[in-house]
TrEMBL record, chain A:
It comes from Actinomycetospora chlora. PANTHER family: OXIDOREDUCTASE, XANTHINE DEHYDROGENASE SUBUNIT C-RELATED. SMART domains: CO_deh_flav_C (SM01092). Keywords: Oxidoreductase. Residues 1-227 form the FAD-binding PCMH-type domain. This is Xanthine dehydrogenase family protein subunit M. InterPro entries: CO_DH_flav_C, CO_DH_flav_C_dom_sf, Diverse_Substr_Oxidored, FAD-bd_PCMH, FAD-bd_PCMH-like_sf, FAD-bd_PCMH_sub1, FAD-bd_PCMH_sub2, Mopterin_DH_FAD-bd.
TrEMBL record, chain B:
Residues 1-27 are annotated as: Disordered. Pfam families: Ald_Xan_dh_C, MoCoBD_1, MoCoBD_2. It comes from the Bacteria. PANTHER family: ALDEHYDE OXIDASE 1-RELATED, XANTHINE DEHYDROGENASE. InterPro entries: Ald_Oxase/Xan_DH_a/b (IPR000674), Ald_Oxase/Xan_DH_a/b_sf (IPR036856), Ald_Oxase/xanthine_DH-like (IPR016208), AldOxase/xan_DH_MoCoBD1 (IPR008274), AldOxase/xan_DH_MoCoBD2 (IPR046867), AldOxase/xan_DH_Mopterin-bd_sf (IPR037165). The keyword Plastid does not apply. Keywords: Molybdenum, Oxidoreductase. This is Xanthine dehydrogenase family protein molybdopterin-binding subunit. The lineage of its organism: Bacteria, Bacillati, Actinomycetota, Actinomycetes, Pseudonocardiales. Residues 27-131 form the Aldehyde oxidase/xanthine dehydrogenase a/b hammerhead domain.
Automatic annotation (TrEMBL), chain C:
Pfam families: Fer2, Fer2_2. This is 2Fe-2S iron-sulfur cluster-binding protein. InterPro entries: 2Fe-2S-bd (IPR002888), 2Fe-2S-bd_dom_sf (IPR036884), 2Fe-2S_ferredoxin-like_sf (IPR036010), 2Fe-2S_ferredoxin-type (IPR001041), 2Fe2S_fd_BS (IPR006058), Aldehyde_Oxdr_Iron-Sulfur (IPR052914), Beta-grasp_dom_sf (IPR012675). Keywords: Iron, Metal-binding, Oxidoreductase. The lineage of its organism: Bacteria, Bacillati, Actinomycetota, Actinomycetes, Pseudonocardiales. Residues 3-79 form the 2Fe-2S ferredoxin-type domain.
Length: 341, 696, 167
């Protein structure tokens, strides 16, 4: 770990100005991912700018009936918030499915969105990784690929290949719930839809999000949504707890009395470099019957362009049937719940 | 048995007793090795090889040395020389040759941990790389038959197994695979080393202070008496802290550079995947021949296991099949493929754990083939004498374990049909497997008993408490041997000052140390009676067991588990486990339950989670932390029932103990696989059992 | 780079100069000789370093000391006065809910923090109804303590111990 300076500015604007002016400076919030990376040598900043207390740690009601979540709200507090539990259950469940009780007490809303991939080759300085060292190659392509992407990944050319997945559970729910992310930059504020915050690797896998250096997430807005109250998050992983998703589904479903899907919101985790909004699946569902066959057909529609990693050390082909099964199970539960409600 | 003239009457033994160190452990004030370091101890951080095979051609330490707070940087060019006797594994910083990824190439000593680590990253190493092998390939031209196993012969053949298989009414041939696994005790391997002149003082996380002392004496070419090793509390071992690994040698070597000053080194979690041993992967071919009634006529169990070019360790996985069931014809073999990786080592139930996965899965497959209940199949093949040695058993209660387990688990109601119980979206099934583990006694322990006044006896033995509860157990044994209350025993362990001692390993600690203490108590009482003067003292070495060549001695057990597999996602859970054991006399029922439970939890963890992914392109384990290498979490464990049968075995040792540290894990993975098959109809022959096996 | 921080640890006030890179865990263990919180993985993956930081269970290995100036820290050693044991610690002894003891202080701090979270009504991922009152059954306790690995495999006894103390 290289030495670094530690600063705690008086307000968010000053923090933004400090980081924007110094390519070696980074924001520090809960620290659960950054401190990890400092120790691994993945991150070697010259200055940490602590934003704890500089962004809101409150959850407030918006005039339109939505909720504003301060970027400094800890994951545990967000999950425990009565309004979130009642109005956005998929978000509460996603948070509770993530990490551990201790980590949820530390991690912030802003930091959770910006956590980086857990690809083991990214974390290992002795193996090539285009995300860590552009142009070095991607060891994951023919490596241990259990956690890797099946959608939107870059398989070639070698110098930009990246099959990493975004590890956040919370972000998957936020994408499904059409959240808006407020960002403060040196030139002022802007708003980015949660579904457009993260980016696919394309030809620049080193960049995880559309944020510029120095831009700070200050808050996340959840829009008012009737369907969100009928949402759920289902995470499938290799342990019963404290493990990253192999596949996860955040979904909300609105079914009319005749059993026809009126509306659907779906996002997938564990399958892509971004929390993956499943628009093809949503479109396939709306107007059709809320049946297991239709749910599975919707999943297949989403997976038309899927490309698993085929690795001698274990590929990701299993994720295709797993996405289908998990989506079907999640939607079935939501449909049953609605029927009994 | 000992020269004992007095019978050992269990009084404290058999009574539940909390650990004497418990209050310290729950407060966190019990000091583990690295926590004993004095405040001016230097921090060591190593530089490791990023290639798997080759040579260091240049190593530049100038940037590291320039850093404020760096006291020394050792490399193969300037490190003190080790003695020629050093074990091949221990030739740390002695040459430019690279044998494995992660090998130590340099070590930084600095005044703070942050500086040591920063400086290590500044050491620039240039290497030439050579081709390496790091994949277990049964067809490798390097495959060879090792000279012998840790216990028993490499190969053992009785009768004509191939002819018997060919003639059998039913023949089953299957291949099973188990992965590379790592011990990962929660306390990383750690050492504090200091040289006082030619005397080496170590605080080390070890299962055997005496073994560490021997290894250090050999490595540095000094007398064993010039090495002090202290290890008061050890945060888990499971075998990796049995043998001495390069980290301890490196710390002591580095301390040579700063005489009189302590050097401390605790491995990072990532380093725990490189240098302190592992359980090697196995490929196991099992064949069973049987008549229609399920009486076995032939058993073959042929194992290919991954080894290391650095030094030899062979996972004795087929040994499990040498004694479990009666069959006239039998073959067990072991072959090894040496790879360019660190040396494997003992890991909780070495041999038995992977071997029982194959052997007990195959028994289940045969039961299904025959349409026989799997408990009944095992009962039908109970041997009269030990199939391996032909000796009678000192005691063998496998049948009783199976029967009692079946009763308690409700096995009689089981419908054998697979994929027939869907409850709330989960397929449920149940499975059984049998377990055994040999009774081992390590020679060479020494115990001293001294009258300390006021009726108190000091009992000294260099035993290790790695969590099994040695303090409570040995206190009880000493009390009963001296026929005094436990309050009058002042037990001292974990220090070479108390002489030589065998390890906390092989499920043999209590047996080996206990037999030694009983012997010392005998001598003490023979010499001084029961009203000694202050300072009266007697000692003894571990006695031989006079029955050792007359009887076969094993502990036995039976596992029953329930498995649920999600009908959509294939997620697998184990809501219910039961283990019934016949393992001799139980010294401390409170801590014994924890040992069985812990073993069973290990079995569950191996069944569902554990796999070190050796990426042969790079030659190292790539899921090299506790987020990547999964061990079971609390939520993975459902209800776990443990029961043991009373067993009075007069042949194993005066206390009647058999060892309970490892048998809990043996057979669990097979029971889970068998239950998963019963739940889903899918047979998984490769560990760990993950959800992808059940996806449609 | 050094910074001055003040920490209150188990009721004792300390002022110390630490490297900006020093974690709360290392500040406790290396600078203050408070070795109750353990270093198991140093990456937030095992829970052995769990302490109560300003009343909440926190991983001290991922917390930089410089970012926690003025923090109030309670380790397992500070849960009860010398010579006494916190009820959770006593339950761990009674149920033999540990073996090697290395994860134990973290388990106990985690359990104490968890019980407070549950008392405040926080749900978990295994709570069927997110808005119902918390019922700390075995599955709830196990899930809520899954951030604390125990390699000795004492989980079932840990759940027994915590069940006894849970409301």
């Amino acid at each position: 770990m290289k030495p670094f300076a530690y600063e705690r500015p008086d307000d968010a604007a000053r923090a933004v100005a400090t980081v924007a002016a110094d390519t070696g400076a980074v924001f520090l919030a809960g620290g659960t991912n950054l401190v990890d990376h400092l120790r691994l040598g993945i991150a070697a900043p010259s200055t940490l700018v602590d934003v704890t207390g500089l962004t809101s740690a409150e959850i407030t009601d918006l005039p339109d009936g939505g909720l504003r979540i301060g970027a400094g709200v800890r994951n545990a507090d967000l999950a425990a918030d009565e309004r979130v539990r009642r109005r956005y259950p998929a978000l509460a469940q996603a948070l509770l499915a993530g990490a551990s009780g201790q980590l949820r007490n530390m991690a912030t809303t802003g930091g959770n969105l910006l956590q980086r991939t857990r690809c083991s080759y990214f974390q290992d300085l002795t193996t090539p990784c285009n995300k860590r060292e552009p142009g070095a190659g991607c060891a994951a392509l023919e490596g241990w690929a259990r956690h890797h992407a099946v959608l939107g990944a870059t398989h070639e050319p070698a110098g930009v290949a990246c099959v990493a997945t975004h590890p956040s559970d919370m972000a998957v729910a936020l994408v499904a719930l059409d959240a808006q992310v407020h960002v403060l930059g040196p030139d002022g504020e802007r708003t980015v839809p949660a579904g457009r915050l993260h980016r696919l690797p394309g030809d620049d896998p080193a960049r995880d999000t559309v944020l510029a250096h120095g831009e700070l997430i200050t808050a996340v807005d959840l829009p008012p949504s009737a369907i969100a109250a009928r949402s759920a998050y289902r995470k499938v992983r290799d342990r019963a707890s404290f493990a990253f998703a192999l596949v996860s589904v955040a979904a909300a479903l609105d079914v009319d009395a005749g059993g026809t899907v009126r509306d659907a919101r779906i996002a997938l985790g564990g399958v892509a470099h971004v929390p993956w909004r499943a628009t093809a699946a949503e479109q396939a569902l709306v107007g059709g019957p809320a049946t297991d066959d239709a749910f599975r057909a919707a999943a297949r529609a989403e997976l038309v362009d899927a490309r698993p990693v085929e690795s001698p050390r274990g590929g990701t082909a299993f994720k295709l049937p797993l996405v289908t099964a998990t989506l079907a199970a999640t939607l079935r539960d939501l449909a049953v719940r609605e029927e009994t409600a | 048995m000992t020269t004992a003239s007095r019978p050992f009457v269990p009084r404290a033994v058999g009574t539940p007793r909390p650990r004497p160190e418990g209050p310290q452990k729950v407060r966190g004030t019990a000091r583990y090795a690295v926590e004993t370091a004095d405040t001016d101890a230097l921090y060591l951080f190593p530089v490791q090889a990023a290639v798997t095979r080759g040579r260091v051609t240049a190593i530049d330490t100038s940037a590291a040395e320039a850093l404020d707070g760096v006291v020394a940087v050792l490399t193969h060019e300037n490190a003190p020389r080790l003695a020629r006797e050093a074990d091949a594994d221990h030739g740390v910083l002695q040459s430019a040759t690279i044998h494995q990824h992660g090998q130590y190439l340099a070590a930084v000593l600095a005044t703070s941990s942050e500086t040591a680590r920063e400086a290590a990253a500044l050491v620039s190493v240039t290497c030439v790389e050579e081709p390496h092998a790091a994949v277990l390939d049964e067809d490798s031209p390097d495959l060879y038959a090792p000279g012998s196993l840790v216990v028993g012969a490499t190969d053992d053949t009785r009768g004509d197994p191939e002819a018997a298989l060919a003639a059998a009414e039913v023949t089953l041939r299957r291949t099973y695979r188990t992965p590379m696994e790592h011990h990962q005790p929660l306390e990383p391997h750690s050492t504090v080393a200091r040289w006082d002149g030619e005397r080496l003082v170590l605080h080390d996380a070890t299962q055997a202070v005496s073994w560490t002392r021997q290894a250090m004496a050999a490595a540095f070419g000094i007398e064993e008496s010039a090495v002090d090793v202290v290890s008061a509390h050890v945060g888990g071992g499971f075998g990796s802290k049995g043998g001495t690994h390069p980290n301890t040698v490196l710390t002591a070597l580095a301390a040579r550079a700063v005489p009189g000053r302590s050097v401390r080194y605790a491995l990072t979690r990532q380093q725990m995947f490189d240098l302190v041993g592992h359980r090697p992967a196995t490929v196991q071919h099992v064949a069973l021949g049987s008549d229609r009634e399920g009486r076995l006529t032939a058993i073959t169990h042929d194992v290919v296991t991954q080894g290391s070019r650095i030094s030899e360790f062979v996972e004795p996985a087929a040994a499990f099949s040498r004694g479990m069931y009666a069959a006239a014809a039998r073959r067990t073999t072991h072959r090894t493929v040496p790879l360019d990786i660190g040396t494997p080592t003992f890991m909780r139930a070495p041999g038995e754990a992977p071997g029982s996965f194959a052997g007990e899965s195959a028994m289940d497959e045969l039961a299904i083939e025959l349409g026989t209940d799997p408990v009944e199949l095992r009962l039908r093949n109970e041997p009269d004498v030990d199939p391996e040695t032909g000796r009678p058993f000192s005691s063998r209660n496998l049948v009783a374990c199976l029967r009692r387990g079946a009763e308690r688990f409700g096995w009689a109601d089981r419908d054998p049909a697979p994929r027939a119980r869907l409850v709330d979206g989960w397929w449920h099934g149940t499975g059984v497997a049998a377990a055994s583990f040999p009774v081992v006694r390590f020679p060479g322990s020494e115990a001293t008993i001294r009258a300390a006044g006021s009726g108190v006896y000091e009992v000294e033995i260099a035993a290790a408490d790695i969590g099994q509860g040695a303090r409570a157990a040995l206190t009880a044994i000493a009390a009963d041997a001296l026929e005094v209350p436990v309050e009058r025993i002042d037990l001292r362990i974990g220090d070479t000052a108390y002489g030589a001692a065998g390890p906390a390993g092989g499920s043999a600690g209590t047996t080996s140390w206990g037999a030694t203490i009983v012997e010392a108590a005998e001598r003490f009482r023979d010499k001084y009676g029961d009203d000694p003067d202050d300072g009266d003292e007697a000692d003894a070495a571990t006695p031989d067991n006079p029955w050792a060549s007359d009887y076969a001695m094993h502990a036995y057990g039976a596992h029953f588990v329930e498995v649920a597999v999600h009908a959509d996602t294939g997620e697998i859970r184990v809501p219910r486990m039961l283990g019934v054991f016949a393992a001799g006399r139980i010294v401390n029922p409170l801590t014994a339950r924890s040992q069985f439970l812990g073993g069973m939890t290990w079995g569950l963890s191996a069944a569902l989670h554990e796999e070190s992914v050796l990426d042969d392109r790079f030659g190292h384990v790539v899921n090299r932390d506790l987020a990547g290498y999964h061990v079971a979490t609390n939520a993975d464990v459902g209800t776990v029932d443990v029961e043991w049968l009373d067993e009075d075995d007069p042949y194993v040792n005066p206390m009647g103990t058999k060892g309970i540290g490892e048998i809990g894990i043996v057979g669990v993975a097979a029971a889970v696989a068998n239950a998963a098959h019963h739940a889903t109809g899918v047979r998984v022959r490769s560990l760990p059992i993950t959800l992808d096996a059940f996806l449609e | 780079m050094k910074v001055d921080v003040s920490l209150t640890v188990d009721g004792r006030h300390h002022r110390l100069a630490v490297d900006t890179r020093t974690t709360v865990l290392d500040a406790l263990r290396e600078h203050l000789d408070v070795t109750s919180p353990k270093k198991g993985c140093d990456h937030g993956q095992c829970g052995a370093c769990t302490v109560l930081l300003d009343g909440r269970r926190t991983l001290s290995c991922l917390s930089l000391a410089c970012a926690h100036d003025g923090a109030e820290i309670t380790t397992a050693d500070g849960l009860a006065p010398d010579g006494e044991l916190h009820p959770v610690a006593q339950a761990f002894l009674d149920h033999d809910a540990y073996q090697c003891g290395y994860c134990t202080p973290g388990q106990i701090c985690s359990a104490v923090g968890m019980l407070a979270e549950a008392a405040a009504g926080a749900p978990s991922i295994v709570s069927g109804d997110l808005t119902a009152p918390v019922d700390l059954d075995r599955a709830e306790i196990a899930e809520r303590l899954s951030g604390n690995l125990c390699r000795c495999g004492a989980y079932a006894h840990i759940v027994d111990a915590v069940s006894e103390v849970a409301p």
